[in-house]
Amino acid sequence: QVQLVESGGGLVQAGGSLRLSCAASGRTFGEYAMGWFRRAPGKEREFVAGIRWSRGGPYYADAVKGRFTISRDNAKNTLYLRMNGLKPEDTAVYYCNADPPRFTWGQGTQVTVSS
User: In this structure, are residues 104 and 95 in contact, taking their beta carbons and an 8 Å threshold?
Assistant: First the structure.
């Protein structure tokens, strides 16, 4: 089984940037498409961005397209999410998982964007 540990969240002003990381252990995630998901207060968890394991480009939810960039380092078993132009509506706990999700969810990392 894969264990996922997210990090890099924090408090940032609107328009700011953050870079999230997701370290996977237990087994390689290199064969899976991986994604970032988020859960805002009072809302269901939603898809944010995904990336295939080898060929094919990344893909994004419309709400973050043009602002967020997902990347992966299969050798390090690590997934990243660069977030630019953050908005208050991006405030949420961010999680990584396979896409579609198949691993136990980690604790997530809190992102708070102040206006």
Answer: no
**Could you check whether the bond before residue 101 is cis, i.e. omega within 30 degrees of 0?**
no
Ramachandran angles phi, psi of 78, nearest 5°: -130, 140
Cis bond leading into 100, ω under 30°?
A: yes
Read off φ and ψ for residue 88, nearest 5 degrees. Answer: -55, -35
Separation of alpha carbons 16 and 1, rounded Å: 35
| 75 Ramachandran zone, left/alpha/beta (phi>0; psi -120 to 50) | alpha
How is residue 109 written in tokens? 């990392």
Q: Which amino acid is at 109?
A: T
pLDDT (tens digit, 9 = 90+) per residue, 50-69?
998 777 689 999 999 999 99
| Residue 28 in this model has a pLDDT that exceeds 80 | no
